[in-house]
UniProtKB/TrEMBL annotation:
Name recorded for this polypeptide: Glycosyltransferase family 1 protein
Length: 360
């Protein structure tokens, strides 16, 4: 039995034909593909004891605080630690077949509230790191006493996945030069670099559309103060539903580029979603997505200004070719079948190698 400790996804009749929030997508497709390999149990990383069977497999996200890090003073702190709780005996630190699956960066942002993270990473057999290769490389470059560097040899790089078949509407034409527009979608966390995005677009002749569930403003034009007497206006879309054909059509018709200037993003799912729509990504390497067909920005707004101006004036045939190749890359390198196939192969190889070692 494989226990998948994530967000406890509940399957519905049409689950596989719709596109949902990224964390729900992970649980859904884990069940679809890993469930073809073994008996599969979908559960939550907030739960504790699940099994006494030493042959079972546990793979899950580090415990993610259910209340965004705010403990209820009437209840105290959460006592659940699924890695510790599933140890077979009191002398063990974890179940022998414990694996972590999580986004990975060499410095965890303050928004990532994971109270058991040290214990869980140190006692897992492998850590399946959803991220760009940049973050695996930079973890090995650290050479310090950080937790990330300490567990580096357990890391197994995995791309973030996307069910691209559920983004059937994609760009076939680009807006004319002078009318091209940009899109950004994120939680606007500190590591998303949205301030760099705004500063990079000051006095650029384009319109930026922004969607976020974390921004408290009415839908419409929003003006932000960037300091040094600089102001920037973008159009706020509110929260978008990726499964809504009207929204997908609107994005494809109106937006030509997806911009993401993160400073430390594991591998932004929104980049993959908008590559599947055919938009051209204007991104920093630290946004986690690597492609010869993307257009790369920096953390210098003045340098970005020049790059964006150049991109906005590219011929349509150039953009169409990039769009086609990006969609092909997403289908080939970011499909869930390959990702969970790799995870399963690494787990079975690890279990077998430990079994052979114990018999020798």
């Amino acid at each position: 039995m494989l226990h998948f400790l994530w967000a406890g996804y509940v399957l519905y009749e049409n689950s596989y034909s719709i596109y949902e929030f990224s964390n729900l997508e992970i649980g859904k497709w884990a069940e679809y593909y890993l469930g073809q390999k073994t008996n599969f149990h979908q559960t939550s990383c907030l739960f504790g004891k699940l099994t006494d069977n030493p042959n079972d497999i546990l793979i899950g996200h580090p415990t993610w605080h259910g209340s965004n890090g705010v403990d209820d003073p009437t209840k105290g702190k959460s006592i659940r630690n699924w890695v510790k709780d599933n140890a077979i005996s009191t002398k063990d630190l974890a179940h022998p077949n414990t694996y972590i699956l999580m986004p990975w960066v060499p410095h965890f942002p303050k928004e990532w509230i994971m109270p058991c993270i040290d214990y869980q990473l140190l006692n897992a057999q492998k850590i399946f790191a959803l991220c760009g290769n940049i973050w695996i490389d930079r973890t090995f470059e650290k050479q310090d006493d950080s937790l990330q560097y300490g567990v580096r040899d357990k890391l197994v790089h995995c791309n973030m996945g996307i069910a691209s078949q559920n983004f059937p509407i994609h760009k076939k034409t680009f807006n004319k030069i002078g009318n091209r527009q940009l899109l950004h979608v994120s939680n606007l966390g500190t590591y998303k670099g949205f301030d760099i995005t705004c500063k990079s677009l000051v006095n650029v002749e384009t319109l930026l559309h922004v969607a976020s569930s974390s921004f408290n403003a009415p839908v419409g034009k929003v003006q932000v103060d960037l300091g040094n007497n600089d102001k920037f206006v973008f159009k706020f879309l509110g929260t978008i539903n990726n499964n809504d054909p009207e929204i997908n059509s609107w994005i494809v018709d109106n937006c030509d580029f997806y911009i993401h200037t993160a400073t430390m993003d594991a591998q932004a799912t929104t980049i993959l979603e908008n590559c599947a729509r055919g938009l051209i990504p204007l991104i920093t390497p630290e946004s986690g997505f690597s492609s010869p067909h993307a257009i790369y920005l920096t953390h210098d707004p003045h340098e970005n200004h020049k790059i964006i101006e150049w991109a906005l004036n590219l011929p349509e045939e150039d953009l169409l070719k990039r769009s086609e190749l990006l969609r092909e890359q997403i289908v080939k390198e970011h499909n869930w079948e390959s990702i969970f196939g790799k995870i399963w192969d690494v787990i079975t190889e690890d279990i077998e190698s430990r079994k052979i070692k114990s018999q020798s």
